[in-house]
Amino acid sequence: MTKTMKAVLVLFIIYSVVSTAVNWRTMSSNTRLESEVAALKDSQGDSGAQTTELTDALDEAKRAGAKAEMELENALTSLEAANKDNEELKSELAALKEKFGYDPSIEWTLSRSGLTIEEVENSLKEHPEVIGQDAVLGGRMGFNRVMMLTPNWVFGQFEDGHVLGWGIYEYQHSKGVFTWREIASILDGDIHIGK
Fold first, then answer.
1. DSSP structure string for the chain
2. pLDDT tens digit sequence for 65-109
3. pLDDT of 17-47, one tens digit each?
């Protein structure tokens, strides 16, 4: 389950709980106040201040209930918008995966090791020292795009602000630590074969 899906599910659960609680509390308060007003009218013959006070409290409870219902309706509208955005993002992601040759077996293989594609790709971004090309003009090499090719190899596009290059990198993962090595890279036609 993706983070977005989890967030939507949590929002829906919160909405359901709050909606039920507000409705129950509003109905309970209104019913109690209506009963007290009716009992007071019966016992005192609609005598003055206490009846007015209870009637005012009942009106206030009704206004609070209406306000809570409006807030819940706004929350539901926000939740529906988030669901729509989530579905649109899923469609865009599916289209991109299809366009760039997404291989679900990579995700499956990584999951058996307790890893995700995102973790592996982020790890490579955090290790620019593995880039086997030298920066020029005082620049500093860093990855700006990475993509899993196989369960063990990652493509990386890198640059230093002046020149652009591409490489294939292999990793080992043990006890939460990634170790990277460059297989090959190219920088403006200058091919570098890793160690």
1. --HHHHHHHHHHHHHHHHHHHHHHHHHHHHHHHHHHHHHHHHHHTS-HHHHHHHHHHHHHHHHHHHHHHHHHHHHHHHHHHHHHHHHHHHHHHHHHHHHTT--HHHHHHHHHTT--HHHHHHHHHT-GGG--S---TT---EEEEEEESSSSEEEEEEE-SS-EEEEEEEEEEETTEEEEEEEEEEETTEEEE--
2. 888 888 888 888 888 888 888 888 888 777 766 666 667 888 888
3. 556 655 555 556 566 666 766 666 666 554 5
